[in-house]
Specification:
Length: 728
Amino acid sequence: MKPALALLALFLPFTALAQSLPGTQSLPPNPDFSASMVAGIDRMALRLIGQSKTTREPNREKLRAALGMVDDRLPVKALELVGDTASPALLYETDLCRVFRVRWPVFEGVHGEGILIQPKAKPHARLVLLPDADAAPETLVDPRWLASGCELVIPALVTRGTRFSKTDHLGIRTNVPHREWIYRQSYLLGRHLIGYEVQKALAVVDWFKAQPEQVPVLVAGFGEGGMLALHAGALDERIDGVFSAGHFAPREGVWQEPLDRNVFGLLRDFGDAELAVLIAPRPLVLQHARYPGHTVSMTGANGERAIAAPGRLAAPERSAFDAEVARAKALRPLGRILAIGADGSEEGIVRHLLPASAADGVMGSLRAKPATPSLPVDGAREERTVRELGGFTQRLIVTCEAERQARFWNQVPLKPLSAFEEYVSGERDRFWKEVIGRLPDPDQPVNARSRLVRETKKVAIHEVTLDVWEDVFAWGWLCLPKDLKPGERRPVVVCQHGLEGLPEDTLNDDQTTRAWSAYKAFALRLAEEGFVTFAPHNPYRGKDAFRTLQRKLNPLGLTLYSVINGQHQRILEWLKEQPFTRPNKIAFYGLSYGGKSAMRLPAVLNDYCLSICSGDFDEWVRYCVSTELPIGGYMHANEYEIWEWNLARTFNYGEMSALIAPRPFMVERGHDDGCGTDAMVNYEYAKVRRLYAKLGLADRTTIEHFDGPHTIHGVGTFEFLKKQLDWK
């Protein structure tokens, strides 16, 4: 509202029962504002994805960070032979080569495993050959490789099976593919399955480069392995050439692929063409063939929990493949790219990738015709591969807490308060930009619209919409006490619903409904006690419809809260301009997903003067990624959008609370709330209590436990609001 209009409103005969609020246009009814909001955000996300192709600036450090490659590899002094008296390491031998089962160290407790083909003569080249995820390395041992005169290591990848996506001692089995199972554990910890598997391949490159006889080193792959080969070649300049089949394509549709392909910020800096740019001027062969066809099953069998995220892999049209190749050549004209189809010449591939002398040697060796071996597949390797990465990732929960202690808590100045506020201001900006993902501030005219929805004896309820960005609006229900006098300003409480909720749920006083059991009509009750309340809609409603938004935003370095923050920027802007509000007394109070919002919105939006987190405050990192919690946690749930990139290394709920400080902060916790345990909640809240006490502000924070479930209690929190907002 413009200042003149706001001033005029003070003199207008104000009535809470007006059909439209002063300064707003009439709001036509909408049968589903929630669905309209999600659809609008979807259009914005797709538009941003399309625009990303014109602004990318790829470099290796960005790619390494996006893949979570922050762990140093262990030195590989030798490949270890894997075998025993029942299953010897030597699988096959010809006059030209030997074939062994091998493994090599990557991280503490994590090995690469696979097949070594070792020629008996000096090798013409050395090759890391990466199979598709569901192809056992033994199945790639064929006469061409045996006769090539090349030394090959064929690593095993994490498969798409589900047998080991489980927590044995809890008796929980899921239909989550192994690749998604590792993704779920690692993403929030700032690691990624793609990064892990690239590291396994590069550990072999380390060993190759340590050999006394130096020959060209190549990386090649099919399907999932084609993806890894492309990334490895882009990252490591020691690799002399790359062959990638069954992967190269436009990546703007990555949100439709299996969840383990979700890389935060990928499209902001990279498509496959940009990866090709980082490989140039080294030779690259791209083959439009051997793309895996795979659709993630959404059903569970044999007692499995059906919680997997939807996704599919399919071959791109040849025209799309060619267009991405053309884009790569335009970006780096000096790149040596050979693009071929399924009928591509073997000799052409070899001569494109290798210097003439090495290529001549390989082609000469291929004249030999060894028999096709039939090698037994190591049946225990699949479980070891999953368990090792899972165990390594679970140990990171502890090391990440130590990292946050060193990076955040050990740096926080507690005296004077101004020094604390200055430090936290920088951390608040880091949280918004690096973890949440920051969009530009709202840029559309507010275009406020409203209509009277209904009234009670004490309260008039208005529905309000506000424009934010193109296609994106904010929407909520405003409760105005009927005893509000013209010119009188009152504190505001923004009352936030949870998952799959609606604004009206927070006002529903029908005690037979599910809405009442969760929210206890807290927005209406607070309005009856004299507060102005506003119940906004946050777009976490619609199951896959809204979860797909997260999938579309993540590759842009954004999250659902990037959008929600912008919506609340606009809501705060509008509320502060209203003649019936105290601009410096706008509080936030949310339950469940609304409690999640209570940690993230006030942490970056200073205009919220207070925050109450109900039914969500927790040792959040552990609750999200631990596979061992007796209460289950998100590893065993279907909220596949829940993980936030690198959160564990930067901000858990204790650190987010510090971003809210020195403003008042409260936690509401039911003893029987399944979102965490009292012990976990109290462990994390102890950090908050200590901080406020050290700041000399212990009276600004509290926690209320009550004997109840996942619900608004509305006792201590109401008193906290009255005290901190100075309202009687």
